[in-house]
Amino acid sequence: MNVQVRRARPLAVVTGMGLVTSLGSGKQDNWAALTSGKSGIRRIKRFPTDHLKTTIAGMVDYLPASNRGAGALTAELAETAAEEAVAQAGISGDFDGPLFLAAPPVEIEWQHRLALNATLNAGQADAPLLAASRRAGGFEDIFDATQFGTIAQKLMDRFGTRGLPVTLSTACASGATAIQLAVDSIRRGETERALAVAADGSATAESLIRFSLLSALSMQNEAPHRASKPFSRDRDGFVMAEGSAALVIETPQSAKARGAKILGVVMGVGDKADDFHRTRSKPDGSPAIAAVRSAIADAAIEPQQIDYINAHGTSTPENDKMEALSMSAVFGNRMGELPISSNKSMIGHTLSAAGAVEAVISLLTMREGRIPPTINHDNPDPAIPLDVVPNVARDAEVATVLSNSFGFGGQNVCLVLAREPV
Predict the structure, then answer these.
(1) Apex CA 276: angle with CA 174 and CA 405, to 5°?
(2) DSSP 14-38
(3) Residue 286 pLDDT > 60
(4) Which of 63, 115, 195, 211 is the most buried (most CB within 10 A)?
(5) Apex CA 61: angle with CA 111 and CA 152, to 5°?
(6) Taking residues 16-28, what's their average pLDDT?
(7) 51, 112, 172, 414: the active-site residue
(8) What's CA 77's distance to the chain center, in Å?
(9) 51, 112, 225, 349: the active-site residue
């Protein structure tokens, strides 16, 4: 009789974390604000909003690059979070591992369009492209800003990561995908450590208009801090936000060799594509259900071992209903008592960064024994009765967390995170 022995795969542990949101820079400030139920959503002051239906967002307005365009801000957000994560991991010198960056799609920004237009009006029809391609004539920034890999290249130079850096964009699941790729590289034995970074500084007028045309954004502008209300009956859309997160992920052996403290474990990852619609999720929730079940199976645990769910929880009528349906299909009658809260009620939807931002918050939840609340939950939706940890943080013993990311275009990625190996 032939007996097949499954080789134990390397465990992926977290030794460093960085976090930047509209609530502040760094894990400490963010955690204090999140557990006190503070909102970082405010009226937009960075650009005129006179003719916009939505005039609120979770903006990061306190960094030097905050007024220099989406590309520059995304780059600074990424570097700021990575600096905190690498420092906490205790890595000096070259990082010596691959980089996986989640970032928003790149497009030429308005200040660059105006500069190019001025050159064209001066009768130099081909000069802008020639200058940009040669990185000369004052157009160097335009060339670099329109390359999707520019930010990752800068991070590689800054932290000394190994190999060609990977930049990815899988909509609202991007941050979780970056973690997934880092974990996969460790499991395949390609590296002992990896750096997963997710950043998004693209809360621009164009983005607001596009999402408004999809009827996806909240228009409750009168009280910005109360606009994001996941799982509430009067929810009307998500609130755009900016932010970043970074995680140093490595093998336990690598961490032990450096004397690094293990902050948590990425036990399982599950993904599933949804081809139903470009923006809407499949009404029966089957792709989300499959992603959750895949993550739990990958972690080699049972659904009843999940102690808390960090919800995707965008505050859109359809998405919240779909997520509740999907979780009920997996966890059954436990959903009435299993805590499921949404960080987006306080920080808004950080888009490309959301999966990593919420992974960091999930790890902090387990380490601190405290679940951040879903604020603004004053009008529960009777169609989705859940324990959303309403309005006030809750002390709890949390050993395992399911963190959900369900993105536009059918990108669904779920993570099972643990305080220690299960």
Answers:
(1) 25
(2) EEEEEEEETTEESHHHHHHHHHTT-
(3) yes
(4) 195
(5) 65
(6) 98
(7) 172
(8) 12
(9) 349
Domain with CATH 3.40.47.10 in the chain: 12-106+147-417
User: CB within 8 A of 8, min separation 6: which ones?
Assistant: none
pTM of the predicted protein model: 0.92
CB-based contact 403:176 (threshold 8 Å): yes
Per residue in 288-298, pLDDT tens? Answer: 999 999 999 99
349 is catalytic: yes
User: Among residues 383, 400, 347, which one has the least CA distance to residue 77?
Assistant: 347
- The position carrying tokens 């390359």 is 147
Joined tokens for residue 370: 């405290």
Residue 418 phi/psi, 5-degree rounding, is -135, 150
Closest CA to 207 of 173, 238, 168, 175: 238
Cβ(102)–Cβ(178) below 8 Å: yes
CA distance 28 to 76: 19
Would residue 409 be called left, alpha or beta, if left means φ above 0 and alpha means ψ between -120 and 50 degrees?
left
Is 312 designated active site?
yes
Task: Please give the Cα distance from 78 to 75 (Å, whole number).
Answer: 5
Q: Percentage of the chain with pLDDT > 90?
A: 78
Mention the CATH class of domain 12-106+147-417.
alpha beta
Banded model confidence at residue 136, pLDDT cuts 50, 70, 90: low
Q: Considering Cα of 209, then 227, then 384, then 313, what sign does the dihedral take?
A: positive
Q: Which of 112, 312, 377, 414 is catalytic?
A: 312
Residue matched to tokens 């894990």: 27
> Residue 293: how many CA atoms within 13 Å on its side-chain side?
13
Q: Which of 181-190, 236-245, 270-279, 301-310 has the lowest mean pLDDT?
A: 270-279
Helix (H) or strand (E) segment spanning residue 211 = helix 205-213
The position carrying tokens 């570097």 is 79
Tell me, yes or no, if 172 is annotated catalytic. Answer: yes
Compute the distance between CA of residue 156 and CA of residue 177 in angstroms, rounded to an integer.
Answer: 19
Position 137 scores a pLDDT of 52
Number of residues that this document lists for the chain: 422
Q: Is the pLDDT of residue 236 over 70?
A: yes
CA–CA dist 23, 350 (Å, integer): 12
CA 408 – CA 173 distance, rounded (Å):
8
